[in-house]
């Protein structure tokens, strides 16, 4: 706690005024001897202890009232999270969401959610604990603990700068848990800055239960959540799904599949300027956005016929969030879309091969190789965009397991289907459980699936895939640390993406396409869309021109080998390069990095969901917005004013004289004393000299 008028502390001795006045009044009294006072004296001696306690309480309350008045005049400040009585914790951990959506700004001030939150947290820590606690920073982009000296440096650190990455909030909590456990941090306050974006919090994932249990077992850990869930107003976003170079006669052009989206309740038609830059050459056009989404298929952008490969971007006009107004792309001769199926069951292999061989894009070449599990070592690791594995998982430590892990780390896709006889082998943090069958009279259906992003997302025109009409007669449980994308009856995961590091393209499907397991092969649409999406995701990391999403390890172990392809781009150090959107080059390799698609979704978790995720923990939630310029540290003089009023009220109640009952009267008008003796006794007491004070 601090004071806006600290000079008032010199007046604190005035709180002793009630005691001084009492002592002066006590020594001013003069004694008057009065013989009849002996009876009052005896009664006073009987009640001396209680009377003294009463006087001490009255003096104490008067002192507290005067002290409270002095603190009101001093205008005290206190951190809204740490409170007034807890003292400084041993360690303060600051968890910062550096995802792309945190760069939404207040147009009036130009301050982003990230900057406003860091500024408020730094001021609150300074006012509440100062330098008495050890400070540790963990950001969502790097996930590594960083000790810091002062909270004021939060805005100046590279680890708190803006990024175009996604955030994994459960992983952020796990990093904090690991640090607390390993370093025995004592009483710890964990502060989290986030915009509560649904895709970052993964509220439907299976990691929160384990995190709650682990934190509940720790003593003295408190959580303070500063959140900015306010969506961007009138915000437009652009995405490019596909880029193809085409020649016709003496002309060449790029065909782009792009989407412009917004999220408003009552959309009105607006004209949107579009700007295309290809290898530095700029062209512009205007399109009309009538609804919340506009999909442009094979939009032609003319280029020079001699331009065989290169890079470009699509720009929208500036708005409250500039991060989703630009999308980068690269182009080159596309590599063949080669998929490999590893399976010993022809009944499952054939529908998979048929779906993958049917071309989604007629301009590209599709090839599929089928191998039995005994020949898995023959997988063409360098050219395959997708590996479908239907069989027992390789044992951890095997050469094949290491090859699959290296393949997934390179950004290609791996899709696992369950074997008929599951075992306990684990790979990518997941393993197969037991087969479960639906009731004989009715097949299970898919009760929930994620349709905003991923393999089961809605189509480009916003239509939903018919996932809910699938029938699942039996499925194999999926056990481990993964992100569910679909669930069947009973909340059992059906499609799961691995949450292990460097395995964002690894999926586990808990059923088979063949008869007797599901209707995937019979219905066809869902399986076709799912397989081709995972194939295209893996193909983005083949060839010399690739697409990717900003992430810490996207440029490999040595990002210093890469540099921005646009010579006019601002200089960026090698550690920040993989965290920012743009086109990077290394030799003849081009890599376009963009924000992950989930960052464009404005959906946030509700306050009720947040309380469910943190149930059982000691936490406080403070919701802020960019228009609110108040500090997290507020004046609390009203608290002291209330304390003064309460002290004076209690002093008045204690000082109030006791209520006396009227004495009983006999018929002759006399009342006996407590012993039954008449008030006028014939016994004569011995004379005694008594003194009284007035």
TrEMBL record:
Top-level taxon in the UniProt lineage: Bacteria
Segments for region (Disordered): 660-694
Gene source species: Chthoniobacter flavus Ellin428
Keywords: Membrane, Transmembrane, Transmembrane helix
Stretches that traverse the bilayer: 6-27, 56-74
Lineage: Bacteria, Pseudomonadati, Verrucomicrobiota, Spartobacteria, Chthoniobacterales
Bias type Polar residues, positions: 671-680
One matching Pfam family: BatA
Name by which UniProt lists this protein: Conserved hypothetical membrane protein
Residue intervals of the Aerotolerance regulator N-terminal domain: 1-76
Signal sequence, start to end: none
């Amino acid at each position: 706690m601090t004071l806006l008028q600290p000079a008032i502390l010199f007046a604190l001795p005035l709180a002793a005024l009630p005691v001084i006045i009492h002592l002066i009044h006590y020594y001013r009294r003069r004694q008057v001897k009065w013989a009849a006072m002996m009876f009052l004296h005896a009664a006073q001696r009987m009640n001396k202890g209680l009377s003294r306690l009463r006087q001490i309480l009255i003096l104490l309350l008067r002192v507290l009232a005067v002290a409270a008045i002095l603190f009101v005049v001093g205008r005290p400040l206190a951190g809204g999270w740490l409170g007034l009585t807890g003292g400084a914790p041993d360690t303060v951990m600051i968890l910062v969401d550096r995802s792309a959506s945190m760069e939404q700004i207040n147009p009036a001030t130009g301050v982003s959610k990230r900057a406003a939150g860091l500024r408020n947290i730094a001021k609150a820590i300074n006012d509440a604990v100062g330098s008495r606690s050890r400070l540790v920073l963990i950001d969502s982009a790097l996930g590594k603990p960083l000790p810091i000296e002062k909270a004021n440096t939060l805005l100046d650190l590279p680890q708190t700068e803006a990024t175009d990455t996604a955030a994994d909030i459960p992983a952020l909590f796990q990093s904090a848990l690991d640090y607390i456990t390993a370093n025995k941090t004592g009483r710890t306050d964990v502060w989290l800055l986030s915009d509560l974006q649904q895709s970052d919090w993964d509220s439907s994932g299976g990691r929160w239960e384990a995190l709650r249990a682990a934190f509940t077992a720790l003593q003295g850990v408190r959580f303070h959540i500063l959140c900015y869930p306010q969506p961007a107003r009138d915000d437009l976003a652009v995405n490019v799904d596909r880029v193809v170079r085409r020649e016709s006669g003496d002309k060449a052009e790029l065909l782009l599949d792009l989407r412009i989206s917004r999220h408003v309740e009552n959309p009105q038609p607006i004209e949107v300027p579009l700007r295309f830059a290809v290898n530095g050459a700029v062209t512009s056009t205007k399109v009309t956005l009538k609804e919340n989404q506009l999909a442009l298929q094979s939009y032609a952008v003319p280029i020079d016929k001699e331009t065989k490969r290169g890079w470009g971007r699509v720009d929208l006009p500036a708005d409250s969030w500039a991060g989703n107004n630009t999308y980068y792309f690269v182009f080159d001769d596309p590599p063949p879309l080669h998929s490999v199926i590893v399976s010993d069951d022809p009944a499952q292999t054939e529908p998979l091969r048929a779906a993958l061989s049917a071309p989604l894009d007629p301009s590209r070449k599709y090839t599929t190789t089928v191998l039995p599990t005994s020949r898995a070592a023959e997988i063409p690791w360098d050219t395959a965009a997708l590996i479908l594995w239907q069989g027992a998982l390789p044992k951890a430590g095997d050469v094949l397991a290491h090859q699959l892990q290296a393949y997934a780390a390179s950004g290609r896709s791996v899709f696992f289907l369950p074997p008929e006889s599951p075992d306990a082998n684990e790979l990518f943090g997941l393993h197969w459980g037991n087969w479960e069958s639906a009731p004989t009279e009715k097949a299970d259906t898919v009760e929930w699936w994620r349709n905003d992003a991923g393999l089961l997302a809605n189509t480009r025109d916003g239509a939903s895939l018919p996932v809910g009409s699938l029938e699942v007669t039996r499925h194999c449980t999926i056990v481990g640390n993964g992100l569910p994308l679909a669930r069947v009856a009973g909340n059992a995961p059906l499609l799961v993406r691995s949450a292990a590091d460097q395995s964002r393209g690894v999926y586990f499907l808990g059923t088979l396409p063949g008869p007797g397991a599901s209707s995937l092969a019979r219905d066809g649409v869902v399986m076709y869309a799912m397989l081709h999406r995972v194939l295209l995701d893996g193909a983005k990391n083949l060839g010399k021109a690739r697409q990717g999403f900003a992430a810490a390890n996207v440029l490999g172990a040595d990002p210093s080998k890469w540099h921005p392809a646009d010579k006019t781009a601002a200089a960026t150090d090698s550690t920040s390069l993989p965290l920012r959107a743009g086109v990077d080059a290394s030799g003849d390799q081009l890599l376009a990095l963009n924000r992950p698609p989930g960052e464009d979704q404005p959906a946030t978790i509700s306050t009720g969901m947040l309380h469910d995720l943190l149930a059982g923990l000691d936490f406080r939630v403070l919701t802020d917005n960019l228009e609110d310029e108040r500090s997290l540290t507020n004046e609390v003089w009203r608290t002291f004013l209330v304390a003064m009023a309460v002290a004076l009220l209690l002093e008045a109640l204690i000082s109030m004289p006791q209520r006396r009952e009227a004495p009983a009267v006999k018929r002759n008008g006399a009342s006996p004393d407590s012993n039954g003796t008449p008030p006028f006794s014939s016994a004569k007491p011995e004379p005694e000299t008594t003194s009284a004070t007035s």
